[in-house]
User: Which sequence fits this backbone?
């Protein structure tokens, strides 16, 4: 009898080990796997462009949210995004993973409105997690369509404070931009009065005037003013206008909050 019990005990133990091994394999298989090229840049790794012809269909939702007609996971990042709107405060909270909004394709959560003509769009930007990846992007985007490689004009505030005005001039080509890094000395947070302290813009905006797209910025609450030269890009009407966020981490979601969002169907009132 003891031998039978022992054999059943051994059999049960083997089965339990096999179950744990199988469950672990299933869990690992179900975890999102990002290709090496999509991993963020570090001291030992450089993020590079996707392989030629690598694309993923976007995931689109046509339920209105605030002033926007719908939202999309452009490029369908490995971790789905989400967004919410607080009607009392007027703030939009966007959660998104995504390896980048750059190169020949994008991965980000996008709240959009289909529009034509001249456009002014501006928003205050905040990153709730101060320890998020330094190159995460809160973006204002005017793009031709919802494909991951669409023509587009992008204004972005990065996690470490860089601002850029970028464009993808043609479908499936690499983005190019003009970048601004702003800092000051004698400001709070410096190790000494001579330390250069990054300045985070309080508010960013984009203006479309015909085929001209310009970046507008308020660094510390002063009236919005244009930064740098505009870019020239032709988009066929109608096109998509909206706000979005990319964590710059292919399998990890982060959050950006957009408040005091102003969207006008005219050039000039960027405020």
Assistant:
């Amino acid at each position: 009898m003891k031998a039978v019990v022992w054999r059943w005990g051994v059999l049960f133990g083997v089965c339990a080990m096999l179950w744990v091994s199988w469950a672990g394999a299933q869990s690992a298989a179900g975890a999102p796997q990002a290709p090496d090229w999509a991993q963020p840049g570090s001291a030992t790794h450089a993020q590079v462009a996707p392989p030629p012809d690598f694309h993923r269909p976007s995931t689109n939702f046509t339920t209105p949210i605030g002033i926007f007609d719908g939202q999309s996971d452009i490029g369908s990042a490995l971790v789905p995004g989400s967004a919410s709107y607080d009607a009392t405060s007027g703030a939009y909270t966007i959660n998104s993973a995504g390896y980048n909004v750059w190169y020949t394709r994008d991965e980000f959560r996008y709240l959009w409105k289909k529009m034509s003509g001249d456009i002014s769009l501006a928003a205050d930007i905040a990153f709730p997690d101060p320890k998020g990846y330094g190159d995460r992007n809160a973006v204002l985007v005017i793009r031709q369509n919802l494909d991951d490689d669409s023509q587009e004009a992008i204004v972005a505030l990065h996690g470490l404070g860089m601002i850029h005005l970028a464009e993808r001039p043609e479908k499936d080509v690499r983005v190019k931009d003009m970048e601004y890094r702003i800092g000051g000395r004698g400001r709070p947070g410096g190790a000494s009065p001579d330390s250069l302290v990054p300045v985070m813009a309080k508010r960013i905006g984009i203006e479309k005037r015909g085929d001209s797209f310009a970046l507008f910025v308020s660094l510390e609450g002063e009236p919005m003013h244009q930064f740098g030269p505009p870019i020239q890009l032709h988009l066929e009407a109608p096109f998509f206008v909206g706000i979005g966020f990319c964590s710059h981490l292919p399998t990890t979601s982060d959050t950006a909050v957009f408040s005091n969002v102003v969207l006008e169907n005219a050039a000039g009132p960027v405020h």
About this structure: Residues 2-30 form the longest helix (29 residues). Residues 56-182+194-264 form a domain with the Jelly Rolls fold (CATH 2.60.120.200). The radius of gyration is 23 Å.
